[in-house]
């Protein structure tokens, strides 16, 4: 296999020393919306259980544990050793190893479906993102779904503006990320790339995948949920889920979501 440059060291540092990934999907209204909608979309995209699902960049196992509970056989690969260890502890039915999405330690066609719900937005170079997608194709049986998530190009500026955190120092950084897609870690997030919908489609094509079905995950109401601190049982939260579902494939609204999800057969 080709040799790749080491993954950005600040990604490991960020998730080990700065940010607690384990509670991200239930700590904020946006996280809860992301989790709910991602699970809804995965339930439609993945084969019926039991299937072998590879969760690349699966973090501490939030989706892997849920999928295993539904009857799938799940193997998680993550760049951060603490994430893989936490997933093994929290979900004993999930196997987890440390690895890089660009060079997976797995044989060809070993998974019925492969998830990339984090790696693509931690690879700022297009060539690396395409390599990660090609690796997902390689390890997925022919016809099995490859599912990839990215952060929307608009998300950082929307999010920090809604939080009242845009100032003279951060505004140029956020506008730079909006212009180029490349996040400056000075914004408070780690090394990252933010996609426009058409770029994700193009990268799937470059990896030899057919044009993906593209979904907006959170829809346009997620900044309002955070601003009002909406709880999971609030009417506004349920209305936001319904709104996201109604607009999920509308090209005019896709970029308003914080995350995009793409699905295509290997």
Task: Output the keywords.
266 residues, alpha/beta, Rossmann fold, 11 helices
Could you characterize what this model shows?
The chain is an alpha/beta fold. It has a single domain, classed as Rossmann fold, CATH 3.40.50.150. Helix content is 42%, strand content 17%. It contains 11 helices and 9 strands. The protein has helices spanning 9-18, 24-27, 29-45, 62-69, 81-90, 126-139, 155-162, 170-180, 197-206, 222-228, 235-247; strands at 52-56, 73-78, 95-98, 113-116, 145-152, 182-183, 192-195, 213-216, 259-265. Strands 1, 2, 3, 4, 5, 6, 7, 8 and 9 form a 9-stranded mixed beta sheet that branches. Helix 3 (29-45) crosses helix 11. It is globular.
Outline:
It is built from eleven helices and nine strands. By secondary structure, it is of the alpha/beta class. Helix 4 (62-69) links the parallel strand 1 and strand 2 (73-78).
How are the secondary structure elements laid out?
Layout: H1 9-18, H2 24-27, H3 29-45, E1 52-56, H4 62-69, E2 73-78, H5 81-90, E3 95-98, E4 113-116, H6 126-139, E5 145-152, H7 155-162, H8 170-180, E6 182-183, E7 192-195, H9 197-206, E8 213-216, H10 222-228, H11 235-247, E9 259-265
Parallel strand pairs: 1-2, 1-4, 2-3, 4-5, 5-7
Antiparallel strand pairs: 5-9, 6-7, 8-9
Helix pairs in contact: 3-11
- Rough outline: globular
User: What letter string, H or E per element, gives the SSE order?
Assistant: HHHEHEHEEHEHHEEHEHHE
Give a short account of the largest sheet. 9 strands, mixed
Based on the coordinates given, report the CATH architecture: 3-Layer(aba) Sandwich
CATH superfamily: Vaccinia Virus protein VP39
Helix content percent band: 40-55%
Number of domains: 1
Looking at the chains present, what oligomeric state does this protein adopt?
single chain
The unreliable regions are 1-7
End-to-end CA span: 19 Å
Based on CA atoms alone, the radius of gyration comes out at: 17 Å
Structural class: alpha/beta
């Amino acid at each position: 296999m080709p040799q790749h440059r080491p993954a950005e060291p600040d990604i490991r540092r960020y998730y080990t020393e700065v940010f607690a990934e384990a509670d991200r999907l239930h700590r904020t209204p946006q996280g809860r919306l992301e989790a709910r909608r991602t699970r809804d979309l995965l339930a439609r995209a993945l084969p019926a259980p039991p299937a072998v699902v590879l969760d690349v960049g699966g973090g501490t196992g939030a989706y892997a544990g849920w999928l295993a509970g539904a009857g799938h056989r799940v193997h998680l690969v993550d760049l951060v050793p603490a994430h893989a260890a936490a997933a093994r502890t929290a979900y004993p039915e999930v196997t987890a190893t440390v690895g890089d999405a660009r060079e997976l330690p797995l044989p060809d066609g070993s998974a019925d479906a492969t998830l990339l719900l984090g790696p693509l937005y931690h690879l700022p170079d297009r060539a690396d993102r395409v390599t990660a997608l090609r690796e997902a194709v390689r390890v997925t049986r022919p016809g099995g779904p490859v599912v990839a998530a990215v952060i929307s190009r608009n998300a950082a500026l929307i999010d920090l503006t809604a939080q009242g955190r845009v100032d003279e120092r951060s505004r140029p950084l956020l506008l730079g990320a909006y212009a180029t897609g490349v996040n400056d870690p000075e914004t408070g997030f780690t090394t990252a790339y933010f996609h426009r919908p058409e770029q994700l489609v193009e990268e799937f094509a470059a990896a030899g995948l057919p044009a993906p079905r593209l979904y907006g995950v959170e829809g346009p109401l997620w900044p309002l949920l955070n601003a009002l601190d909406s709880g999971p049982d609030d009417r506004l939260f349920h209305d936001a889920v319904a709104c996201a579902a109604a607009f999920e494939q509308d090209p005019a609204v896709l970029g308003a979501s914080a995350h995009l999800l793409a699905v295509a057969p290997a």
